[in-house]
Amino acid sequence: MKIIPETIQTEQQLDELLSRPDSAVVDLFRTLEGDIIFLGIAGKIGPSLARMAKRASEEAGVIKRIIGVSRFNNAQEQKELESFGIETIRGDLLDPEFINSLPKVKNVIFLAGMKFGSEGNLSLTWAINTYVPALVVAHFEASRIVAFSTGCVYPLVDIKSVGSIESDRPEAIGEYAQSCLGRERMFEYGSIKNGTQVSIIRLNYAVEMRYGVLVDIASKVKNEEPIDLSMGYFNMIWQGDMNAMVLRSLTICTTPASVLNITGPEILSVREVALELGKLLGKTPKFTGNEAPTALLSNAVLSHELYGVPKVSPELVIQWTAAWIDHNNRLLNKQTHFEVRDGKY
Fold first, then answer.
1. pLDDT tens digits for range 41-66
2. Under CATH, which number does the domain 11-207+236-265+294-311 receive?
C-alpha cells in the first residue's frame, strides 16, 4: 500500500497521487459492466479522473476502453492521455453531429462546463451548460451517466448551519449558477423521459496544488495582496479523494436522476487558513472586508456515508500547497472566484 507523502515536489508526483485508485475503486472495476467515456476530459479534473479509471481497471485485471473526448486545444495534453492508454476523440460537443458519432458505451462521465469568464460570454455559458447536456443525455439514453454540477446552485446559508443538503431547494444566484441548474434539469429531463440512469454531482470545491481555493489564498498571502473576507467560509476536498468518489458514483445512478454533494466534512475559515499559510510561507496575510453571516456551504454527509470521509485532511493539503507555492511550481492560473457572492464569475 502506497503511503500519502508529506510533501509533493513535482508534477509527476502530483499527477500520480491524484490518479491513484484506492482499493474500493479497484474493487468496483472488477464488477463494473462496460467501458467508460469522459466527455470534456481536457479540463482541470478530467485527466487525473480518467487516468484513475485506467489504473483501476489495470489493477483489477480487467480490460476496458477508457475514452476521453474534448476539442483538445492543447495537443500535448492529448498525447499525454494517449501515453497512459486512454483513447482520445477530438471534436466539439456543441456539434450535434459529433455527439451522435460518439460510441454509445455503458458508462459516461460528463465534465464539460464553463465557469471562468462566464459573465463575459453568457450565451456560450448557457449553451455549454444546458444545450450540450440535452444532446448528451439523448445520445447516451441507454448509459449510466455521472454528471458534474456545482454547489453554486444552492443559496448562501448561515455560517452556523451544517450546510445545504441534497434535498434543499436550489436558489441559483447569478446566470452561471442558473445555467448549472439548467444543466441538472436537462439531465433530469432525459432521465425521466428515457429512463436513463443519472447521478448529478454537486462539487464544492476540489483542490490540488495547481489550482483551487487554497492556491488562490496562498498566492495572495505570498504576494502580499489583500484577501477578501466577505465570503469568509468554504468547503473543499482533495481532488484525488473526489476522483475516487465520482467513479464509485457510477453504481448509484438512478432514474429519475439522483443528486449527491461531494466535498469535505469541514467548514473552513478563510481568515484562519490564510493565517496558517502565512506561518508556512513566512508572510503576514493582509485582509479586506469582514466575514458575512452567510456563505456557500454544502453538507456532504450522504457521500461520506456511502464512501467514507476523504483520506487527505485539509491540514495536509494546506501544508502541500504552501510548499508548492513557496517553490514557485507551475500553476494553472485559473482563479476559483470563491469570494464572489453575487454569482458573477
1. 998 999 999 999 999 999 999 999 99
2. 3.40.50.720
